[in-house]
């Protein structure tokens, strides 16, 4: 394997790799050493090399002997993460190299064994760690986002030896939320004691949340502009002509002004607008 093939293999595997894996792929130790000396590769630490432009997070994980985990791994996978205060990593129990001063380190045993080459935790481990680390609301947002994207399934998760916090989330999580806000809304409104249904098809289109039989709550994200906005307005009008009541709120309102949103919905329920007449 020449240097060009070494670079190609490294790019396919994320730009950071163990030298043993590179050797197993066909690169001789001489070629690996030559690539390091010419700057084609850089040594991260003993047994690990990286391309010069490799992902900085992966390089840092390899340097410290950890894997990217919890909310940091969820973000990398494109899941809904409401907040990430600092990097989150996982390390074997009693590991001595983890950067405890610069990151949140999770030391517990993984639910799914980690491959020695892995620098990002498997999704099942990510969800278990999130359950241990985060409050229920942001944790459930990540769980439902993962289920919605079919990165794992309730069946697989249910067969794992889950800790109590993860088992609680497993019991609640469903793959129906198109966004984190659609997870938050029913979670915050459970106390109303009325039926809450997500992604119900009404008059040819899904609605974000149906409360009772007639109260519809729609959440506008950044894509609700132009043709999308016109279609939303037209659908709202048809819903109201068929006896539904529609409350439309924005991302900013749900995240930054929840008391106002809560007040609108609670007042509508108090008036019985969720009931069929």
UniProtKB/TrEMBL annotation:
Domain of life assignment: Bacteria
Pfam families assigned: DUF559
DUF559 domain span: 192-268
Protein's recorded name: DUF559 domain-containing protein
